[in-house]
Hints:
The chain has two domains: 39-168 and 389-405, Beta Barrel (Lipocalin), CATH 2.40.128; 171-358, no CATH class. By secondary structure, it is mainly beta. It has helices spanning 14-20, 250-259, 286-289, 325-330; strands at 40-46, 53-59, 66-67, 74-77, 80-83, 90-95, 100-106, 112-119, 135-139, 142-147, 152-157, 162-168, 177-181, 186-188, 191-200, 210-216, 222-227, 235-238, 244-247, 267-272, 277-278, 284-285, 295-300, 306-312, 334-340, 345-348, 361-363, 368-373, 379-384, 391-396, 398-404. Strands 3-30-29-28-27 form a five-stranded mixed sheet. Strands 13, 14, 15, 16 and 17 form a five-stranded antiparallel sheet that branches. It starts with 13 loop residues before the first helix and ends with a strand. It contains four helices and 31 strands. A hairpin with a 4-residue loop joins strand 27 (361-363) and strand 28.
Amino acid sequence: MKHLFALRSLRLSTAAIALSLFAGCGDDEEEGTDTDGPLYAITTQLLAEDPSDSYVLVTPDAEKAASLSLDGAIKISGRALGVGIPKKGSVYVVSDESATVTRYKLNSDGKLEASGTVSFSAQGVTSLGEYQANFQFVSETKAYFFDGNAAKIVIWNPTAMTVTDTRSLDALVLPNTVMAFSGAVVRTGGQIIMPVGWRPVEGSSVTKKAGVVSIDTATDSVTLATDDRCGYTHDAALGTDGKVYIATEAYGAASRRVVGADSPEPCLLRFDPTTRDFDKTFYRSLAELVGGGTAGALIPSHTPGTAYVRVLDESITPVSEGSHPRTLASGTGWQWWELNLATLTATRKADFPSTSGSVFLFESENQTLYTEFGAGASSTTFRVLGDNGKATVKTPGLSFSFLQLR
């Protein structure tokens, strides 16, 4: 989730709402609007609608309480994402309904205008709507798209809007499984380290296999590594020892809780960027690290060398016969535990409110934000990581992508 794979009391005011409707949602010339300050593109998916549509909102409100409207937002068919390089004035919009990337540029009025497209269809790509982290930008002229369906990396030029090369990942394909890349990627030592997870095409279990794709951003050379000790390892954090710690995400933990031994035990593994392989001597049960319970996820903290593990509180999100792992993972009963990656000791962070298990991290001007998804896929609240989960902006639908335009 993924690899994702970002979550203040929420107080609404007429002034806050007016400011939030910046790109077509209100008058950007309005008195009091800062036309030079930070501006953000948030793409939200209305999954409860049939058919599903998405909206790209432009707003200055990311670090304060505000409730956004869809009025005047850019409507995109399907499940869309907005990706790009922060503070460069462009957002690249994609959807699960096509293989086309559309670039939107910020104009002098603070609105987005379409400015070019590129299609990945000739590379066998049919859909672009998974996680924001599937798109990794190295520079203004080189970016990668990691595609689990086509089992390849597409290398493309965001300035010229052209495809320049591909890398095959066929060695990672498993029969009768879905391969999915993480919403949480680690970049270190000139490498992009992308965790991989698998799940069967049918059923609620996950596949007992962990994987990592490492790509050298200077040479585009790819290294693949797998491990058979646990599965759905979509979450990653960099330790102070230079190693990358990779863990089973909340969905994998919920799967273990629902189907039992048919799903592998949620675990913590260690990956060495130097050898580009898993440390075969290192394995930890996530449940044992937190004293028991349904534990999953590894969310990098604002403190180097620490990360958050999530533990399901069944008094908030009960588990019953027929519960589905996806429902549990998106439920609001997941506690926060801070894990020291050097000592492997975990401490419950009771000052953080329990939230949904699926968490994505995003960077705003001054804060790291994480997502909290509302019941029934109805809304997303962004919260401040490291400030007791203080709530900021709220959007309709589920927001899986966030980009600072300036």
